[in-house]
TrEMBL record:
Residues 1-24 form the signal peptide. Residues 41-137 form the Lysozyme inhibitor LprI-like N-terminal domain. This is DUF1311 domain-containing protein. It comes from Paraburkholderia youngii. InterPro entries: LprI-like_N. Keywords: Coiled coil, Signal. Residues 46-101 form a coiled coil. The keyword Coiled coil applies. Transmembrane segments: none annotated.
Length: 147
């Protein structure tokens, strides 16, 4: 009976570890996103990636809002909370600039491909970068001690 309890405890620990790992799935790369949508026609692929880009924008917006809210609850002097909030706002603006420049570059890698090829690359890039940024913000917020 004791061995069975130890096995069950071990299994429960394994299952909770696996669930945690699954919830922290890696962010899909541009290439993986394009491959996910490649089963569709060219127009369908563009629509698929546009949906992924929109979902990533929403996820990023939620992560930015959550980070701002977490900073408001941060157990730190107001001086540092306000500094962090200002740095977050500046970082969000700089990220948006970086994302546009990087995704314009990614789109240029379609070379002489049709216009939709450029858009496909741009949308996949936007989606990947937004999802990576959202993940960074969620991770940063999870480390802060709250009041």
């Amino acid at each position: 009976m004791r061995a069975m309890k130890q096995t069950c405890f071990g299994l429960a620990a394994c299952l909770s570890t696996m669930a945690l790992a699954a919830s922290a799935a890696p962010v899909a790369s541009e290439r993986a996103l394009r491959e996910e949508c490649s089963a569709f026609s060219q127009a369908g692929m563009r629509d698929c990636l546009a949906e992924k880009a929109e979902a990533s924008r929403k996820a990023l917006r939620r992560a930015e809002e959550k980070m701002a809210g977490t900073l408001s609850k941060w157990d730190e002097d107001d001086k540092y909370v306000n500094q962090a909030k200002a740095k977050l706002a500046a970082s969000n603006r700089k990220f948006a600039q970086y994302r546009e420049a990087q995704c314009d570059f990614a789109a240029s890698l379609s070379g002489g491909g049709a216009g939709s090829a450029r858009e496909v690359r741009h949308l996949a890039c936007v989606s990947e970068l937004n999802n990576r940024r959202a993940e960074q913000l969620r991770n940063a917020a999870s480390d802060l001690p709250l009041k």
